[in-house]
């Protein structure tokens, strides 16, 4: 279990994280979302004791990360910027890490196998592609067989096969009862990976709820209607208070009215219906809707500021 209590972190004038509280439960993948510059990486660094909060507290399993005697056995992390000694082989990189925690060479071989780097284990990590570097970072996170995983953009640089692999891995790790906190900008990927969401904007909590609840809360619901009488039906639906747009020949998209009510309107007007399908909004739509006021570096209406963040290392 990860706990953040009233975390606040300032960099000069800039408040990166503001009075942020949440807890991450074991047994499910929790997605950590927020627009660029929202404070996700800073929060992860605070959780891992890589930065000190100005106020508040961050604990993993009830203890500060920096107080854990063998931290890799409790929490594994992948942060955005990699800290691999470029001259070292993947094997030696992991072996050095393992030795600091009293872990043997057997575990190094196991994680190399698990992340699919066995064949290139003796090659210089500096020559690795972005995707291979991510796999090595994930291997390092898994080295101590930890009960908590904190992964910042783990799918970054991975090809479709790699993305599917990490998705399955995260779900399996959660199903084993581990706590998995993962950030990503890929909404479609998050939608099929995370069960719970913590969403922040401008360093503050925007939502802490299940994926389903988050999408429902945004109100991004519509109904797809197919009818040979689309033109006439469209007028009846609009008269009944529905927001209706013609999305194709004989196809309508209706907002503000539920499927049952649309069926009643069609029956009352004698319109034939071929299809009435409720359409749940996407995570992307919900995210855009609920974080609209928290976007710091948007394409329009922004301040023109650039993201002046510094890379972190783990
Ligand atoms: N070391 C630092 N010094 C100064 N400002 C920083 C530092 N680290 C982060 N910031 C600022 O704090 C804010 C939050 O940054 P952070 O990297 O945590 O956001 P993020 O949600 O991870 O963003 P992204 O999605 O772009 O990776 C940003 O405005 C960033 O510029």
UniProtKB/TrEMBL annotation:
Do you know which SUPFAM superfamilies this protein is assigned to?
Answer: P-loop containing nucleoside triphosphate hydrolases (SSF52540)
Which segments of the protein form a coiled coil according to its record? none
Tell me yes or no: is Iron among this UniProt entry's keywords.
no
Q: Which UniProt keywords apply?
A: ATP-binding, Nucleotide-binding, Transport
Has keyword Glycosyltransferase? no
Task: Spell out the InterPro entries in the cross-references.
Answer: AAA+_ATPase, ABC_transporter-like_ATP-bd, P-loop_NTPase
Q: Which GO terms describe its molecular function?
A: ATP binding; ATP hydrolysis activity
Q: Which residues form the signal peptide?
A: none
* The ABC transporter domain, residue ranges: 2-227
Family assignment from sequence similarity: Belongs to the ABC transporter superfamily.
Protein name in UniProt: ABC transporter related
- Which species expresses this protein natively? Streptomyces xiamenensis
Lineage of the species this protein comes from: Bacteria, Bacillati, Actinomycetota, Actinomycetes, Kitasatosporales
